[in-house]
Amino acid sequence: MYLFWKRTSLGSILVSQDGMCDFVNSLCEKPFKCTQVSLSSADNALFLVITMPRDSDSSAMVSLESKLRDTFEKTGLSVRVSWVELAKTSFVDNEAIASLAKKPIVWAIAVALFALLLKEGIATLLWSLFWGGAFYAGVLFFQSEKGVELVRKLRSMAGR
Q: Are 86 and 54 in contact (CB under 8 A)?
């Protein structure tokens, strides 16, 4: 989403909300994360919502606020930060696993393995997994620096 900032004689100036959030996150240290950005064109103010753990150090928060103010002051924006405390949960939010579950190839492989288990039994499934894992490890090896070097040596020995 794009946020309206200013109207000039050349047209409107819009700012990407996601881009601004990413930029603020690049300035944040590890426990802090910008989750929301809004812009007030009347005040030239940037409103930031930054999450923090329960046991955050207040000096780190003050340091981050001053860093953000100094950075955005150069663009003509004043910064107002709202701090939101994150509660610790036992659930681990892992975006990589969530994105993996959305890929059709993952579901296709899972169903193929299940069909193999039903049709041929556990022994065939284990052998298939073994050879699949061995092939995967081989591909990873040949994509590594040592594997590329080995292929280069084999090609030079073959005269290519």
A: yes
